[in-house]
Amino acid sequence: MGLISRLFWPDMRFKNIYEITPQLLSECGINAVISDIDNTLVTYDDPSPTTEARCWLASMKEAGIKIAFISNNTGERVEKFCEGMDCYFRAESGKPSRKYLLEALTHMGVDKANAALLGDQLFTDVLAGKLAGIRTILVDPIKDVMTPLFRFKRALEKPILSAYERHISKNRQKDKDK
């Protein structure tokens, strides 16, 4: 599974963004997060950050962790979401293209080694981060849009995530046995 694990296995995986703390990111040497929006921070139905998401974003900012938003959604959607935030953002980014991830790093003045991409999809978010040479953080989707395309993509993700989880579980067991 060499190529698949290199391109599609996240470096970290969490149930949701609230499990990701500024302290955890700092301990990993991460001082900038390039985040997806839809199904990562909020549902597609939330036009702007929820109170909880705003608090999470504020905790990052207070800890000195820079945030940028890269989305494949429309300009109108992304601009509305980012309204009032002083941050880099890009809509219709063409993820898994790495172009705007690298642009975000330059804009934030951050080296690849100190950044991570946060998202909910393997074939757009994780792959984009891997192609850009930055660490990736995968969260479970908040609420999937069940269009045929999304059902198909999620079905393709299942065996990859199962292999990833088996690998992680095996490594945890090895660590326990030491």
What are the main properties of this structure?
178 residues, alpha/beta, Rossmann fold, 6-stranded parallel sheet, 7 helices, 47% helix
How would you describe this protein?
The chain is an alpha/beta fold and 178 residues long. It has one domain (2-143): Rossmann fold (3-Layer(aba) Sandwich). Helix content is 47%, strand content 14%. It is built from seven helices and six strands, in the order αβαβαβαβαβαβα. The chain has a six-stranded parallel sheet with strand order 1-6-5-2-3-4, with helices on both faces. The model has no long low-confidence stretch (mean pLDDT 94).
Nearest-integer average pLDDT = 94
CATH class: Alpha Beta
What's the number of extended β-strand segments?
Answer: 6
How large a portion of the residues is in β-strands, by DSSP E?
A: 5-15%
Number of helices: 7
N-end to C-end Cα span: 26 Å
What is the string of helix and strand elements? HEHEHEHEHEHEH
- What's the number of structural domains? 1
Which architecture name does CATH use? Answer: 3-Layer(aba) Sandwich
Identify the overall geometry. globular
| Low-pLDDT segments | none
